[in-house]
Amino acid sequence: MLTGCAGYSLGSQKPAHLRHITKIAVPSFENLTLEPRLGVLVTNTIIKQLQNHGSYQIVSRGEAEAILQGKILRINRTQFRSDRNNILRTSQILATLSCAFTITEAGSGKVIHNGSASADSYIILDANLQLSETQLLEDAAQRLAHEVADQVSEGW
Asked: Per-residue pLDDT tens for 38-48?
């Protein structure tokens, strides 16, 4: 019975180069887009996703063994679907959010992990375009955070 479970273990499976890290700090991501407050939104969702994974304890810079820093590179919006009667009028919009991130050791500043992630999200446009845009960015940020957390916590 024991040989049937060979190679499997319970708990998180961090990448080999990140196994020694238990405490990580996540400062606000740098926002290189023109979208206001997007850096804070992405940072908060990444922190929540890392906490859900449970692989790392999120702490301040002073207590951290490593620091996850990132940049939001771009957000692309494209027409996903058009109105049946007017093809120039958008009924659904697709957004692609892209970021690059690094994990550095807190003491030495040595880069121990480089990564990038992107996430797609689409939404049906409502009469309130600002609300639709806000919901679109929140969903894209959650999908992006899930991809970043998977790379850092699971190695894929």
From this structure: 999 999 999 99
